[in-house]
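Input sequence (283 aa), recorded before submission:
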Amino acid sequence: MRLVQETEAEDERAIEVYRDLKHSLRVPVVASLFQAYAAWPRFLDALWRRLRPSLLAASFLERSQIISNAAVDSISVWPVTDHASALSIRHSAREVARMRDLVELYHHLNPKLLIIASAVDGALANGVIGGLGNTGPRKPGASYDIGYDHRTVSVAFSNEREAPLRVRSIFEDMKATADIAWIDAEHRAIATSPDWLEIWWRDCKPTYADPRRAEIRDRLRAQGRAAAGELPYRLALSADLLSDLGLQAPEREQITQTNRVFCESLPGLIIDTAIARKGLGAG
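Predicted structure, token format:
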């Protein structure tokens, strides 16, 4: 899978989408999902123009909040220690506050990404998805409102190859435990504080052996699919459109399979974020 990072983006369409994406979602980084789409700049541009109106609608924001809340409720079955108190021994209050800001960023962002990836999966499979109509603009102060603005959050990522030994060891343990080939951006962001990574993983790792984790993941995935089907504006990605974009059958299949990686991984990331959030006493 090729990810086009912000510093590597050269196509003007991708650069413009990245800029508008961060502004629309009020985030400081471009998520890996969109970095993956950017491997096909014309696809990214066409997708964003069709997707953006739905992302600003009240119903989309409300559905993403429902998924966030479901994750928070679901992880209550597991004991999570007081990460904030443990971290405060070696870290300043400002550093712990930055960690809380970081988990809040992903707490709000990942459910949106799950809905987006689910919508793209449905549109690629069936040509079109959504189109139920907009219930109106967001209402400032409502429970689902995007009133938060994460664009000032400081986000850095640990490099797998250059990280300290203790971080690389945890990364390898994560790969073996979760049966994954690489470490997601969210986990690499946590790893910029090795103490935090260590404390969080100590509570998170046992959940991978708990059958309830798969049940929670399946419920979140189903909620993402349901929300995708209820997008207020139609997302059309027909074979004819993709062909007009210069994407032949092998490339369309590659896009589909790349997108499904995120459909599978995002529910787990939402769970991991909820655990980190509970440990820090965020929210």
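Checked by second reader. Strands lie at 128-129, 235-236.
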